[in-house]
Amino acid sequence: MTSLTQTLADFATGMRFEDLPPPVVAECKRLLLDTIGCALGAVGTESGRIALDYVGILGGRPDATVLGMTERSSATAAAYANARLANVLDADDTFPTSTHFGNATVFSALALAERDGSSGRDLLTAIAVGFDLGARIGSWMGAPMQIENGRVIGWNELGGPAATITWAAIGASASIAKLDARQANHAFGIGGSNSPQPTLRKWAESVEQPMYKYADAGWCAQIGVSSALLAKLGSTGFLDILDGPNAFWKFYGSPTHDDDALIAGLSADWQILNTTYKPWPCCRWIHHPLTAFTRLREQHELRTEEIDRVVVRANPFALTPIFREQQPRDMLSAEFSHAHALAAVAHDVPAGPLWYEPATMNDARIAAFRERVTVVAEPTSSNIAEWMTGGQWRGVPGGVDVHARGQVFSATADYSLGDPWADSTRLTDAQLTAKFNVMAGLDAKGASDVIDAVMTLDTAPVERLSGRLAVLSRSVSHSAR
After folding, report:
1. Do you know which SUPFAM superfamilies this protein is assigned to (predicted)?
2. Distance CA 183, CA 163 (A)
3. Residue from 311, 355, 312 nearest 330 by CA
């Protein structure tokens, strides 16, 4: 019987573009575009500046594009900077195991694709493979929730997004680097045993956030790239990293694992079709109340000045101190503040980096609105376990009670805008393109050229996308100064 580790290594190295169904190809393009946009939007932030300065210190061969820089850098350095940038604004996609790994999937694959002169088809294949691997690792270990008597009571003691981010990067890198199955098996062992720590609980209980939040996506992307390069050179790793009593799930701290979720439907049930996109740059758990809030505003034509207060009804994961913070002190804390997100939406701040500009953060009107937002538990969301399938959630009820005009307007959203499981919430190509344009800034021509390169990637080499990214990157870099 083939081991779990070898089964996934065979999958990562055996997949070809011709094997991908058209909807998967289309979703890979959408993920690529959205992730590039999220990274571009973060170039002018403090965390983005640090990532770019760090890459400048590292130096290296000019093999790959670094968004926000005029100079190219090594594949590992580019993967680091770009993946970190993509997660800075917390606007990147979220897979329904409560993790973000499109960032490392895209930018580990792109860095090696540029380095090796790969085709656009090979890049799209690597994105599909890497995302699938990250998703399956997350589903294997399950969402990091504690369940008592069938009800969710909070986060696991151990767990975190770093595992899925790292494994997605490993899978994407193994695919684009064209490792053979044995080399990929070693790459899995190298990367898996060097994955970052499960820091989720520390993050969830901390109001003051480090810049890398729960995991540095750049670090994870770099692990993926390095694992593939090392394995190709002959370095070895644990060949049974996903097997037996001491498998990855055990030393990463997961209380359970589901081997069926890891390999069921492999090569047929593509997980990228289940990812969710964010219309707003904040934690996904905030999106359900925000969805309810925007619907109420539109339905009742509520004006901001009419709103006396808002009671957010949040799921169990979004009740820790960082989510209840009314006056966040910096961007990192604001990304997880219900109050700040509602204030930004109520004042029609464009959903992008402007949410966290000093002019917005320090706006007296925004601050006053934040004070009128309180957070309580959404009673129907404690049964999230009932919404789970294969280790993934499908609906997470959240809502708002808006006090205005002497009345209370209430709404609950089981699905958030950006969820792919309902026509009413799935983001269209036009909506994703509009989001990209906001993130990319003022260079409309440069943004349009990148959009075209992404959407026609299966007909051209990666070099064409790289050239257009370089032009737009220079424009964004100049604007960020």
Report:
1. 2-methylcitrate dehydratase PrpD (SSF103378)
2. 20
3. 355
The predicted pLDDT at position 155 comes to: 67
Q: 210: which DSSP letter?
A: P
The DSSP secondary structure of 344-383, one letter per residue, reads HHHTT--SSGGGGSHHHHT-HHHHHHHHTEEEEE-GGGGG
Tell me the pLDDT tens digit for each residue of 236-269.
Answer: 999 999 999 999 999 888 888 999 999 999 999 9
Q: What CATH number labels 284-413?
A: 3.30.1330.120
Identify the residue whose tokens are 């049974």: 240
pLDDT at residue number 336: 95
Domain 4-274 has CATH 3.40.640.10: no
Q: What is the pLDDT of residue 25?
A: 99
What pLDDT, on the 0 to 100 scale, is given for residue 140?
A: 93
**The total number of residues written for the chain in this structure:** 481
Domains of the chain by residue range: 4-274, 284-413
Contact in structure between 290 and 399 (CB atoms under 8 Å): no
Helices (H), 102-180: 102-116, 120-141, 162-176
Report the alpha-carbon distance of residue 213 to residue 93 in Å, rounded: 16
**Measuring CA to CA, which residue among 451, 392, 448, 438 is closest to residue 419?**
392
Widest CA span of the chain, in angstroms? 71
Q: Which ranges of the chain have pLDDT less than 70?
A: 1, 145-156, 478-481
